[in-house]
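Appendix B, example 12.
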Amino acid sequence: MSDPLPAPLEFAAPRDGQPDLLIVAGEHSGDEHAAQLVADMRAKQPDLKIACLGGEELQAVGAQLLYDLTAVSVVGFAEVVRHYGFFKALFDRTLDWIERYRPKHICFVDYPGFNLRVAEQLLERGLSQKGGGEIAISYYIGPQVWAWKAKRRFKMARTLDRLGVIFPFEVDCFADTELPVEFVGHPFVRESYQQPLRYDASAPVLLLPGSRTAAVSRIFPLLLNGFRQAQQSKPSLKAKVVYPSQRIREVLESVLEQYSDLKTSIELVPNAESGMPASAVLMSSGTMSLACALSGIPGAIVYRLNPLSYWLGRMLVKIPYIGIANLLLERPLHPEFIQGAAKTDHLAKQILRALDDPRAAQDAADGAAELRKLLNAGSDASAAEWLLRT
């Protein structure tokens, strides 16, 4: 993120008195998953009083938005260090609000760099149940201890009351702790979930550069270059670019100013649209990459970090793939092109293969079926039922 972050504002007082639940979700994907969770909970208990540090999706389902964390999400060690003062102030304000208004229950959603530190402070201040206080602490969509920082699981066991995970193998990651961990199913395979994407061989190509401004600035040009070269072989080729917020749209528009030749070929689409058809995809490794895999859309994963963040990541992360679908299936359902490997000709070839090779579409469909079986916990609302069991 190149521009300065805004100063954290004072959070509003809870509008309905002491909240039953405070949700803290710091990224667009977490905001979306938490919003669905809140909707399911409210269907069972309509009178729940819920406040949140999250984003527009949580606000839309009736949670009181105290501060939009999704607007200030960054990734990578270097980016966090650059904005240390901002995040320190945000952290302090969050703790002060919790100490003053004492929500009965807090549910952290993903965003571990921030959320686990808050949980630890709640323990040390004697506010959480494990610290001798009254606030129950749950965590939904836990940090990826199977990829890096595995010792976090012991801190989590010390600070959290329970953990709801969305990948079945994660339960075993905590077997050597006393933390209650439950596989609650992935939100993308709920029967009532509105799939955002679908495969259609005649549809435009989908470009998904991510949801964080700094990452989008690095990755979007790579996707555009690959699409441009593929278009040389197929002049009528069109593409859609999904964006999660107005802030990201502005970044996309800024990048597109340097690609005037693609002006009539690229359409920017808000991610509120459901069932969007796509024939192929170039995407970052975030949450939407799993949505593409579950929709049977062939293509590739493209990722580029700040060089320092990438170097540190290579030292710390010991996994064979960065795409979660690839990890779950233990094979590259979507080939991955990271850092210097994200060359224009490689990406163009992946688009053309997805469009022209019938095996690409069949492999993607087979992978989608396997993933659905792996990610289904057997209950359409199990995450909500889990969180309501206080």
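The chain has a mean pLDDT of 90. DSSP finds 14 helices and 15 strands in the chain.
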